[in-house]
Amino acid sequence: MPQLKIAVLASGGGTDLQSVIDGVNSGYISGKIDLVISNKKSAYALERARKNNIDAMFFSMKKYGDVEAYNEALVKELDDRHIDLVVLAGYLKILSSDFICKYKNRIMNIHPSLIPSFCGKGYYGMKVHEAAIDRGVKISGATVHFVDEGADTGPIICQKSVEVFADDTAEGLQKRILAVEHKILPLCVKKYCENKILIENRKVTVLD
Q: Is 111 a residue of the active site?
């Protein structure tokens, strides 16, 4: 079976991206990262890509003027490269409806909570962990899901829990959840590349 071509979109340091890169380099993931895109020129994710001989591209919103034109340019780049799977790894821009429709059930996102808790509009980065600490939950975690037109509402592929301690800080919780993200995101990408993810309505089955 030919290797699937993967594009990763990231806005920050790219540690989740690195976990996928490591999975590909080790042979754990039977796919190829063809491209890494960021909406931030200074994002270290781009440098991680270059260090691994992966094409790295900065897409500037100013260049395209509006969200629709920006997303059209993204889709064209992905289409031109015949991308099979899009992975959002800390990508902080909203995808257009056309983008999501064209790549339906082919866009994965990693979110640092157990969806449907602490997700949706306004919940990103450290804000997620601060909200979990403030609410006093005993368990948080990470979720990999397919992207639909809602905010963190797509079909859930995998979740992993993390205990929240009484004296926890948002920074400490974030660190432990990141460790979980770096396990379940490569796992989900691996399973997708092996055609072992089945979707029926909103329910996802991951095969052994």
A: yes
Inside any domain, residue 191: yes
- What is the helix (H) or strand (E) element at residue 31, kind and residue range? strand 31-38
Contacts of the segment 115-119: beta carbons below 8 A, 24+ positions apart: 115/143, 115/145, 115/152, 115/156, 115/159, 116/152, 119/143, 119/151, 119/152
What residues pair up with 162 in beta bridges, in sequence order?
140
3-state helix, strand, coil in the chain (%, to 5): 40, 25, 40
Report the CATH number that the domain containing residue 28 is assigned in CATH.
Answer: 3.40.50.170
pLDDT, tens digit (0-9, with 9 covering 90-100), for 128-167: 999 999 999 999 999 999 999 999 999 999 999 999 999 9
Q: How far is Cα 15 from Cα 41, in angstroms, rounded to an integer?
A: 17
User: What pLDDT score does 15 carry?
Assistant: 97
CA atoms of 187 and 20, how far apart (whole Å)? 9
Which of 78, 13, 19, 20 minimizes the C-alpha distance to 47?
13
In a domain, 124, yes or no: no
pLDDT digits (tens, 9 = 90+) for 163-188: 999 999 999 999 999 999 999 999 99
The span from the CA of 107 to the CA of 24, in Å, is: 18
- Tokens 């397919």 correspond to 146
Show the domain range for 51.
4-110+143-159+181-206
82 class by beta-carbon count within 10 Å (0-12 exposed, 13-18 middle, 19+ buried): exposed
- Active-site pick, 82, 111, 129, 145: 111
